[in-house]
Amino acid sequence: MEPVIAPSLLSADFSDFSSAVDSIKRAHAEWVHFDVMDGSFVPNITFGHKLVSDLRSKSDLIFDVHLMVEKPEQIVPRFIEAGADNITFHAEASVHIHHLLSMIHYSGKKAGISIVPTTSVLAIEEALPFMDIVLVMTVNPGFSGQDMIPECLEKVKKLVKMREERGLSFQISVDGGVHTATAHRFRDAGADILITGSAFFDAEDKPALVKKLKALV
Ligand code: DX5
Ligand code: ZN
Q1: Rounded to an integer, what distance in angstroms lies between the CA atom of residue 27 and that of residue 5?
Q2: Helices 206-213, 17-26: crossing angle, 10 deg rounding
Q3: Ligand 1 centre from 122 Cα, in Å?
């Protein structure tokens, strides 16, 4: 099946997010990926729930929020209110994962868990039945434009197997180092959603890039 493409606003011009979201729509990508960073869980700081809320009225695309923050339980309610469709937080940042997934589900949103490159899929094994999305970081979180860490693709393959064996239906997204030369490796491993930052916003012809990532050309 062809993957969903989720361009990340981390690589957009921060003075014009509105145009960035328009360019995602025009390129026929389906999701807008919001990389929320707190300067603590990762060394960078980006934006908060207000950006989601301000863009919400301007776009009908799926808003996919990736929280790279400590204590995600403190800010999840704000992103729910702001109009996020999917909310993903890091397994490494939360103890009460089931509780937080339930809170997100209770609000009618999709809930996801992300793992950094050295976190094993076994760390989230017991949580798999309770989530809609597993976001496998394929670079160290915090910055765009890094090279994919190929070992992380093994985790994608393991998740595909675990999903099949248990009859589960979560989607697998991959984040970091997705571009035209690497997309086939993510697709072959079994990723359902390709998040792309620098490749998308650096591309002159964004619709063509989306087609290439989906392997339609
Ligand atoms: C990194 C972010 C990614 C980032 C990917 O912490 O989670 O979403 O934007 O950027 P590229 O596609 O440039 O590796
Ligand atoms: Zn991300």
Answers
A1: 10
A2: 60
A3: 24
Q: What percent of the chain has pLDDT over 70?
A: 100
Tell me if 139 CB under 6 Å of ligand 1: yes
Average pLDDT for residues 13-32, to the nearest whole number?
A: 98
Is pLDDT of 216 > 90? no
Residue type, 187: R
Name the average pLDDT for the chain.
98
101: exposed, middle or buried (Cβ count in 10 Å: 0-12, 13-18, 19+): buried
Give the domains, in start order, of the chain with CATH numbers.
Answer: 4-215 (3.20.20.70)
Q: Among all residues, which ones are annotated catalytic? A: 35, 175
Residue 217 has pLDDT above 90, yes or no: no
CA distances from 86 to 33, 82, 189, 197 (A): 9, 12, 23, 18
Q: How far apart are CA 162 and CA 142, in angstroms?
A: 28
Which atom of ligand 1 lies closest to the CA of 37?
6
End-to-end Cα spacing for the chain: 15
Question: Which of 17, 35, 137, 210 to probe ligand 1 with, by most ligand atoms within 8 A of CB?
Answer: 35
Angle at 62 between CA 37 and CA 179, to 5 degrees: 65
